[in-house]
Amino acid sequence: MAAILALPVLLVAGLLVLIGVWVLSDDEETDGTRLKEVPCAEALAFGGARMPEGAGDAKGTVQSWLDTNYQADFRVPRAGFDSWLEDAYPQAPAPGGPGTQACAHGSDYCFQLDVSGRPGTDAWYVNMDVTYVNAETVRVRYSAFTT
User: Fold this and answer.
1) Quick check: 54 and 80 in contact, CB under 8 A?
2) pTM for the full predicted model
């Protein structure tokens, strides 16, 4: 009788030990949920764009598990930014237009686009946050993600 009563306790204890081992041995190679550095070109390609000419100080990351989220941060000459943006996302709102008023503090221009179903795009949405660093340079913070 005591063995029958002890069985549920042993099962629960064993389950807790297995969960503890799983948590302690969890790493990015097995579950892919850690933030990984990637080329910025990869991040932009996920959202259907390419790196603009003259881009520098580029950093990219990806985090995925059930959903995928690419981030890119780069600087680009201000003179070529508008033409790059028009080529990459012609449906983007004009700076100061509807949909660009909710930018984070310090941002000069921002938007979110639904790009799901767009040819050559794996992302569902693209966010862009732009800061005019000076008369010659624009800083772009870019995100392309599935949800």
Assistant:
1) yes
2) 0.74
